[in-house]
């Protein structure tokens, strides 16, 4: 092997190089969630897909991970709603293999309309057809303001506090268990699937969890009188030792309707 090439890899990513060339175990890569946290979130015995609730007032949210239908990543969708502090994932669906993405969008849009959802959020998938395709079906598509890794990281406290309810969906649970959290030089964390893996369903679930919660797992009841209740939460930083200063400041911001900072 070319020593210069190996030296360059060591300089670019010491942890990976140590694993690849020296046979050492990596200490910068860990599981995204403990198996116990995932198991605690699974609602065994419930249907894989919950129908829309009738009567009362239930707000549903949806997140999609769009794909082009060329046989690579799946085109995935998740829908969820709030029950008090808990967030229930009502359904997850994905379409894999070769398919017509316009046709899948149309089918998903019809499903969302059953839940009264007129807006769907997606990741930063850059293809121009995505927003246009959803618009043709009467659903407004918005791109997430956060990258995928940040969405994953902000969902962790929800799992830790036992606020997540998931269907017993084998593929979704497998994706969650295989997600890897990696710490880079400078302390920045990223979350992604392992090489050769997929996280389409997991990505959609994390997106729904964030859409239905306040920053970093601090949720509140939308039915309360906001004029009578102080919604400003002041969690001590020692409870979140892995957060950056920026992340910590976000959860101390005054929170307005639907998680929007005042």
Q: Mean pLDDT across all residues, rounded?
A: 77
Largest sheet: 6 strands, mixed
Name the CATH class of the largest domain. Alpha Beta
Radius of gyration: 20 Å
Q: How are the strands ordered across the major sheet?
A: 6-5-2-3-4-7
State the low-pLDDT regions, or none: 215-235, 253-262
- The gross shape turns out to be globular
What is the level-2 CATH architecture name of the largest domain?
2-Layer Sandwich
Distance between the termini: 58 Å
Describe the model:
By secondary structure, this protein is of the alpha/beta class. It is built from nine helices and nine strands. It has helices at residues 3-12, 14-22, 35-41, 101-114, 129-136, 148-160, 170-178, 200-211, 245-251; strands spanning 29-31, 60-65, 75-83, 86-95, 119-122, 140-143, 164-165, 180-183, 189-192. A six-stranded mixed sheet has the order 6-5-2-3-4-7. Strands 1-8-9 form a three-stranded antiparallel sheet. Strand 3 and strand 4 (86-95) form a beta hairpin. The longest helix has 14 residues, at 101-114. It is globular.
């Amino acid at each position: 092997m070319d020593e210069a090439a190996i030296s360059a890899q060591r300089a670019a990513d010491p942890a990976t190089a140590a694993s690849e060339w020296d046979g050492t175990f990596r200490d910068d890569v860990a599981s995204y969630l403990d198996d116990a946290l995932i198991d605690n979130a699974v609602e065994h015995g419930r249907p894989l897909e919950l129908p829309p609730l009738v009567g009362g007032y239930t707000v549903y949210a949806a997140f999609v991970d769009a794909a082009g239908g060329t046989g690579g990543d799946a085109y995935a969708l998740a829908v969820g709603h709030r029950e008090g502090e808990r967030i229930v994932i009502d359904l997850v669906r994905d379409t894999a293999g070769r398919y017509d993405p316009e046709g899948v969008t149309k089918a998903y849009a019809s499903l969302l309309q059953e839940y009264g959802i007129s807006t769907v959020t997606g990741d930063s998938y850059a293809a121009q057809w995505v927003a246009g395709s959803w618009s043709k079906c009467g659903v407004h598509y918005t791109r997430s303001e956060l990258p995928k890794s940040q969405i994953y990281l902000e969902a962790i406290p929800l799992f830790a506090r036992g606020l997540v309810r998931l269907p017993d969906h084998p593929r979704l649970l497998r994706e969650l268990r295989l997600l890897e959290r990696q710490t880079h030089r400078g302390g920045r964390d990223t979350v992604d699937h392992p090489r050769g893996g997929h996280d389409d369903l997991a990505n959609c679930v994390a997106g729904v969890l964030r859409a239905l919660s306040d920053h970093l797992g601090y949720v509140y009841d939308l039915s309360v009188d906001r004029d009578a209740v102080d919604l400003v939460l002041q969690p001590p930083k020692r409870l979140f030792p892995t957060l950056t200063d920026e992340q910590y400041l976000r959860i101390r911001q005054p929170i307005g309707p639907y998680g929007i900072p005042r």
